[in-house]
From TrEMBL:
<feature type="domain" description="CYTH">
    <location>
        <begin position="3"/>
        <end position="101"/>
    </location>
</feature>
<dbReference type="InterPro" id="IPR023577">
    <property type="entry name" value="CYTH_domain"/>
</dbReference>
<protein>
    <recommendedName>
        <fullName>CYTH domain-containing protein</fullName>
    </recommendedName>
</protein>
């Protein structure tokens, strides 16, 4: 069985955000945090480098953002090489689109 990632995005008002925080504080259980730095490259944001505390990943998602489903290919590599990979992608015509942390 493949892992399936499900993501739901919504815009909410400040009052609705407060209501949701209260709801989840009462009913949810904290299971941990996740830290990474992700760099998205031009070409519809389908190619990215994700650097986590212990490893780095080159991620490609087929299809387009907001498609009903997309295949994801993920290749792990040493995070010390992330800067070099970013330079290679830039030289190949994949400029940085956005970074988030």
């Amino acid at each position: 069985m493949k892992n399936v990632e499900v993501e739901i995005s919504s815009f909410v008002s400040p009052a609705e955000w407060d209501r949701l925080r209260i709801f989840f504080r009462r009913r949810a259980r904290f299971v941990g945090s996740h830290r990474d730095a992700t760099t998205y490259f031009e070409k519809n944001g389908r190619l990215r480098i994700r650097v986590e505390p212990d490893a780095a990943y080159l991620v490609f998602k087929s299809g387009f953002m907001h498609s009903p489903h997309r295949e994801e290919i993920e290749i792990s590599f040493s995070k010390k090489n992330a800067g070099q990979l970013e330079r290679v992608l830039d030289k190949m015509g994949f400029p940085v689109l956005i970074r988030w942390f």
